[in-house]
């Protein structure tokens, strides 16, 4: 799944990618591309905490074509590009951050951390909704947007 | 009394006068009938007992000649050698043209005989003619039943569909007919035999035409096959007649009009005639059959027109048309193109289509802020507002019901649209056109003085329609300080 999305292999590439886009939202996923797919991850034993990334990648890849008019998605491997690990506090298996016109956009998801989405969103439509809300708010000049769904109870199923 | 009797007598005379008139009229009618007899001799002839005066075709020389030739030709087998390009001179072609007109004549003859049989058999079994429509089937059934009164002894298997046989048996048990006399019966059976003979002759003619079809009309037979082509030509009355017909008529040649009793109409093909037997038609799926029939009819008409002028004796045009038809039918059966996943449009790039107009304004009026709410939203300077729970708790009432305004109730006030309408009415001499509702009363309850009489209109426009400021109004307590 991760082979469908463009990868960025250096800190400079990440910067360039964020600067280059003027009209569209830039979505960057910081994490690892492992071989396991989301489906297989259920049957094969995976390392704890690492099954998030392939799931998120699958969602991102399937959504990329649909939202390509207003958002572009890049993947960054944090072992390959460790430059941002401390700056953005990238300690989770998968982290998704949003940038618009060289500005980082915060989202109020209810989890307490407004800077990023640090778990795997399973639902494509939810993700599209979040991206659209971020895009609308960013275009208006807002630095913080409120997500349509509240994720404060994310860990309680 | 005498006058009454006289009047009765007079009446009697009148009656006799009437009778005299009636007699005259009857005489006139009789005359008319005699005249009519001469004119409608043909129809009268059906009542004659003599079949031969009705059905003369089989006695004619022409009929016998042609039948003889047809028999010979059928014996000889198909003889398609180069007859030269000029078709009209060929004796076989002439024979075929004759056959076509003959088949039309035979058909008319069969109808006449059918009428004859029907009239005779009406005395025996009147309902049969409405149950069995086809003349040949009718003749067969009549022959089978004969003079029998009990239809359970008659075996009609193979002649008719079982449903019809059942209906006939049931109807026969309650029929009002009586058995025919021996002579009548013999004549009826004769007529039936003759009808069946004619039917066989017609079949022979059609077979002959069919065998020669590839030679007469190669293009038409290339599309629909020689059997259907022969039938079409036979019914139309010749190739040139067929070519002159518009395609919509060609489509209906040979269409059965009535669905028979007891059969469901759900399966009956609508507007399909001989084309139903064509191979192309049989091989199309049922949902496309109507379209295919229309296409077939139009292309066959084109082919018939080519044939009637001998434009293409090889039949190539026909084969091309057949290919065209086949390709078109295949194209209809293609699945629709797969759906492409479309990316979402950029949010907020397409501005919402805002509507306007009278309808929208009226709709918005329903949710607009009322004057009462406006009054409640504002407060007078220096005057504490009343609230629903008293003492500043609960919802505040603002300027609603304050001293000086004099009223707890605020009249509705005119909406903007109603104002426009009211303006129109103003010009007409209808009298006062005030917008006060009929529910406003002149009585008002004030906290200070109790009940007071006020002019309801003056407080309806307390806010001045939202255009005048109420801070400096005459009625407000800011500019007028009341002294006790």
From TrEMBL, chain A:
UniProt KW Protein biosynthesis keyword: no
User: Where do transmembrane segments lie in this chain?
Assistant: none
Q: Which GO terms describe its biological process?
A: mRNA splicing, via spliceosome
Domain of life where this protein originates: Eukaryota
Localisation: Nucleus
Keywords assigned: mRNA processing, mRNA splicing, Nucleus
Q: Does the keyword Acyltransferase apply?
A: no
What the entry lists under InterPro entries is as follows: Dim1, Thioredoxin-like_sf
GO CC terms: spliceosomal complex; U4/U6 x U5 tri-snRNP complex; U5 snRNP
Query: Which Pfam families has this protein been placed in?
Result: DIM1
PANTHER family given in the database record: THIOREDOXIN-LIKE PROTEIN 4A (PTHR12052:SF5), THIOREDOXIN-LIKE PROTEN 4A, 4B (PTHR12052)
Q: Which family does it belong to?
A: Belongs to the DIM1 family.
What is this protein identified as? Thioredoxin-like protein YLS8 isoform X1
Q: Which organism is it from?
A: Phoenix dactylifera (Date palm)
From TrEMBL, chain B:
Query: Could you confirm whether the keyword Signal appears in this record?
Result: no
Subcellular location(s) of the protein = Nucleus
**UniProt-listed GO biological process terms:** spliceosomal tri-snRNP complex assembly
Q: Domain of life here?
A: Eukaryota
> Which UniProt key words apply to this protein?
mRNA processing, mRNA splicing, Nucleus, Ribonucleoprotein, RNA-binding, Spliceosome
Q: What Pfam family is a match for this entry?
A: Prp31_C
Q: Which residues form the Nop domain?
A: 216-334
Report a single Gene Ontology molecular function. RNA binding
Question: Which GO CC terms are listed, alphabetically?
Answer: precatalytic spliceosome; U4 snRNP; U4/U6 x U5 tri-snRNP complex
Compositional bias (Pro residues) at which positions?
334-348
Q: For the region Disordered, give the residue spans.
A: 16-35, 329-360
Task: Output this protein's name.
Answer: U4/U6 small nuclear ribonucleoprotein Prp31 homolog
Organism of origin = Phoenix dactylifera (Date palm)
């Amino acid at each position: 799944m991760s082979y469908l999305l463009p990868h960025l292999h250096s800190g400079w590439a990440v910067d360039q990618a964020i600067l280059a886009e003027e009209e569209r939202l830039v979505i960057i996923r910081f994490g690892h591309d492992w071989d396991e797919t989301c489906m297989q991850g259920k049957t094969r034993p995976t390392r704890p905490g690492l099954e998030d990334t392939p799931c998120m990648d699958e969602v991102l890849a399937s959504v990329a074509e649909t939202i390509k008019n207003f958002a572009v998605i890049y993947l960054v491997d944090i072992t390959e590009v460790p430059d941002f690990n401390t700056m953005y506090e990238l300690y989770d298996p998968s982290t998704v951050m949003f940038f618009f016109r060289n500005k980082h956009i915060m989202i109020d998801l209810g989890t307490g951390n407004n800077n990023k989405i640090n778990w795997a969103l399973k639902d494509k439509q939810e993700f599209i909704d979040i991206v659209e809300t971020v895009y609308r708010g960013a275009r208006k000049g807002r630095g913080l947007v409120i997500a349509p769904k509240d994720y404060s109870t994310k860990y309680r199923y | 009394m005498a006058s009454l009797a006289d009047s009765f007598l007079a009446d009697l005379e009148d009656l006799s006068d009437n009778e005299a008139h009636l007699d005259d009229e009857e005489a006139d009618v009789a005359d008319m009938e005699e005249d009519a007899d001469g004119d409608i001799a043909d129809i009268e002839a059906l009542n004659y007992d003599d079949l031969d005066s009705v059905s003369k075709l089989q006695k004619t020389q022409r009929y016998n000649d042609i039948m003889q030739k047809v028999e010979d030709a059928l014996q000889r087998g198909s003889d398609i050698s180069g007859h030269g390009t000029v078709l009209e001179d060929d004796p076989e072609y002439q024979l075929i043209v004759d056959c076509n007109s003959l088949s039309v004549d035979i058909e008319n003859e069969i109808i006449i005989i059918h009428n004859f049989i029907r009239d005779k058999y009406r005395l025996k079994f009147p309902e049969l003619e409405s149950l069995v429509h086809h003349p040949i089937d009718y003749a067969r059934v009549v022959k089978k039943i004969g003079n029998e009164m009990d239809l359970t002894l008659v075996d009609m298997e193979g002649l008719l569909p079982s449903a019809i046989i059942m209906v006939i048996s049931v109807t026969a048990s309650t029929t009002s007919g009586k058995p025919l006399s021996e002579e009548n019966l013999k004549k009826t059976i004769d007529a039936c035999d003759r009808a069946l003979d004619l039917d066989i002759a017609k079949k022979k003619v059609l077979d002959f035409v069919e065998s020669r079809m590839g030679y007469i009309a190669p293009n038409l037979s290339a599309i629909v096959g020689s059997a259907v082509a022969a039938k079409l030509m036979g019914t139309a009355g010749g190739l040139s007649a067929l070519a002159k017909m518009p395609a919509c008529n060609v489509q209906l040649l040979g269409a059965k009009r009535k669905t028979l009793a007891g059969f469901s109409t759900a399966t009956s093909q609508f507007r399909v005639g001989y084309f139903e037997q064509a191979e192309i038609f049989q091989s199309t799926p049922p949902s496309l059959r109507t379209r295919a029939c229309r296409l077939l009819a139009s292309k066959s008409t084109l082919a018939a027109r080519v044939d009637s002028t001998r434009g293409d004796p090889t039949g190539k045009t026909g084969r091309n048309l057949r290919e065209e038809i086949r390709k078109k039918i295949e194209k209809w059966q293609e699945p629709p193109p797969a759906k492409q996943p479309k990316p979402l449009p950029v949010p907020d790039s397409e501005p919402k289509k805002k509507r306007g107009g009278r309808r929208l304004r009226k709709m918005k009026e329903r949710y607009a802020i009322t004057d009462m709410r406006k009054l409640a939203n504002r407060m007078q300077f220096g005057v504490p507002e009343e609230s629903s729970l008293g003492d500043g708790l609960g919802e505040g009432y603002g300027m609603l019901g304050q001293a000086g305004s004099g009223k707890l109730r605020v009249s509705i006030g005119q909406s903007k649209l109603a104002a426009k309408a009211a303006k129109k009415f103003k010009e007409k001499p209808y009298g006062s056109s005030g917008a006060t509702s009929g529910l406003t009363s002149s009585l008002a309850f004030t906290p200070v003085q109790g009940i007071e009489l006020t002019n309801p209109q003056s407080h309806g426009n307390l806010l001045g329609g939202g255009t005048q400021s109420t801070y400096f109004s005459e009625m407000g307590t800011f500019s007028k300080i009341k002294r006790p």
